[in-house]
Every structure is written in structure tokens, then in C-alpha cells.
Amino acid sequence: MALIGYARCSTVQQDTAAQLDALAAAGVPSERIYSEHISGAAPFSDRVQLQAALAALGPGDVLVVPKLDRIGRSMEDCVSRVAELLDRACHVRTLDGRVDTLGLGKMAKLVVGILAAAAEIERELLLERTEEGRLRALAAGVKFGRKHSYKPAQAAHVKELAAQGLPHRKVAAMVGLSATTVRRILQEV
């Protein structure tokens, strides 16, 4: 019985280090850990490292993942992927302790289906709560996005020069900003 690990983060800004450390601590040899930065919503054909991890599994081997959602985004995706592994006599274990098909026998597919459905509902609720919080913050006047790349005095000067009828590019050169920034300042008026 070999352990094969798989770690995934959705964006390059996120770091797989914690997942890789957890897989190593769970006994997965480093040469058998596959990781990638790709959205879970990406098609399976684009998830090259997941494909490699699944291909490395033989009968009796265990795929170890931090959470079940690492191998599929939707309930159907997770269940079908785990079912395929169970049909190949491979097992799945999550580091969060929710899934370990090794001792479940014929009940493994049912348990994984229920857990995947719960995970999908949990994700949908999280997205709803996040959106509600964002809307409350907007209503309270919180501004999202990056900070302005110009000072208030520069914006005032841009407005003065534009009021004199000067073209955007000339105003931008005089103030030391890009023409796009000048247009943005003038649109905020």
C-alpha cells in the first residue's frame, strides 16, 4: 500500500506549502506528492498533476488529499472520481479526517457522496455569506480595490487643467500621470 499525495491551490497568490507539509507529516513520501496551482473549476484535462497522481495509484494504494474538494469542485465530480478510484481498488483519505475509504468497504461510495454533497452546500453557504458581508461593507462606505495612484492635489490640478480645455494627454504630461489616470479622475467628477 503506497501513499500518493495531491495538493492544489486555486491561484498563484495562494501557497501550497501548508498542504505539502501536512501531506509529508501524514507519511506521504515527497517524491509521491503532486501539486499544482489551478482552479478546481478547471476541466480535468487541464489538471495535469491530479492526472499524474491518479495514474500513479495502483490497487491498494491510497490517495491522500488535504480536503475532498481538492479532487473535484462539485459533488458529482468528487463522487465520480472517488468511485473510479474505488473501482480500481484504490482508496482516498483526507487530512481533515472526514474521509477514509480504506475501512468502509461497499459503503465508501455512499459516505463519500454524502460528504461531497455536504462540502458543496458548505461552499455555497460560504459564498453567500461572503457576498452578504461585501454588500454590508459597501453600504457602510467601505471602498474595495486598490488605492489611487495619485494624490488629491494632483486630482485637483487635473480638474483645473481639464476645465481650461486642455487635451487629456497634455494634462497627463503636465501633472505626471498617465492619460488613463487623467480620464479616470475626470470620470469621478
Automatic annotation (TrEMBL):
This is Recombinase family protein. Signal peptide: none annotated. It comes from Cyanobium gracile UHCC 0139. The lineage of its organism: Bacteria, Bacillati, Cyanobacteriota, Cyanophyceae, Synechococcales. SMART domains: Resolvase. Transmembrane segments: none annotated. PROSITE patterns: RECOMBINASES_2, RECOMBINASES_3. Belongs to the site-specific recombinase resolvase family. Keywords: DNA integration, DNA recombination, DNA-binding. PANTHER family: DNA-INVERTASE FROM LAMBDOID PROPHAGE, RESOLVASE HOMOLOG YNEB. The keyword DNA-binding applies. The keyword DNA-binding applies. Gene3D superfamilies: Resolvase, N-terminal catalytic domain.
